[in-house]
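Morning. Coffee machine broken again, so started the prediction first thing and wrote up yesterday's gels while waiting. Chain of 402 residues, entered below exactly as on the submission form.
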Amino acid sequence: MVGKLSGQARALRARQWFDAFTLVLAVVFISVAWPTLHLTHKVPAAAAPFIAGFAAFPVLLLRVNPLLGWAVSAGSALLIALAVPNQPGNTIPFQVVHILALFALVFAVAVRAPIRMVGVVWVATSLLFATAMAKTGDSFAEAGFGWPLAITGLVVFGLLIRWVAVSRQALLKSEEETELERARRAILEEKARIARDLHDVVAHHMSMVVVQAQTAPYRISGLSADARAEFESIGTGARAALNEIRGMLGVLRSDGQLPEHAPQPSAADVPGLLEGALRAGVPITWTVEDGLDAVPDTTGLALYRIVQESLANASRHAPGAAVRVRIACGSELTLEVDNDRSVAVRPGEPSPTSGSGIAGMQTRAAAVGGVLTAGPRPDGGFQVRAQLPVTLAPHATLAATN
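Came back before lunch.
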């Protein structure tokens, strides 16, 4: 969105500069055409500013409506050629300023007007110059074919510029659509990964329910027949639910790994993750308060993945920068990951990654009912801050799996 607004601001400034240019151009043209009109044409002094104005002022429509500007300029040129006599020795039916303005408008029409109108303007302007210049006394071959050929070249050049501009706009639009599709696909992949992780967590607990229900008659003595039947019913229902979950989530697993063979990390594994990053050469320091063992598995999994992605982003986009991690356990779980500016001697381009970055971390946090913010710090570094609930709300789990 910021890039789009910046592009619109640049386009607005470009239009303003072009309007200022056309205004200056019109002033220059009228300043030349009016004082010199009596040298080329026999006109009353009172009519001179109007005839000079028809030669100069249509260029003001170069951006707003070049087709209308061309019609005014070409029509007035034809009237001047037919009705205004030349001074002795002048063989051109209208002023040089008028020719320059008409050429500029023809070029603008070729760049911006509908294609069918470009053909009309090309033919009409070529006929205007061929017939008007043929009355100057020069050879018809020179006057009849030279000017139309020049106009044809001008129109072709304008069409080439038009084609380049249209191609560039199409390329930018395609790149924007590709970027949006890439972001959307990354979010979907992260949601699928969250669903798989949640499946593994839930499957573990449900498996424990099945085991407890099946072994209860052997572990607890004196159970009545009704109690044994109740435990058997619990085990049967848990097994059915577990099979349904495995069936639904199986299509999301593309790594060929069975759910029961994919143990998921928890909050207690975060210190090991930080130690591994330190051994890998990341200049990292951390402060982790006690209490991670009591964090629910789903929240702990989200915490682990957010820390993992934050460290990866810091290493990728700020190589060599110091990283500080703080995890506080209270009424809610608070995570802060800060990194300084890159201290790499020669920063390289970001390495390709299959993750979804900040958007994926925000999805992780939202899946357990938490919030995550990420952005640059005033000193030039970057911070990721997440607040995750210690007690997972039921609706959060449901939203994450949908």
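The CA atoms of residues 111 and 165 lie 9 Å apart. Going to sketch it on the whiteboard this afternoon.
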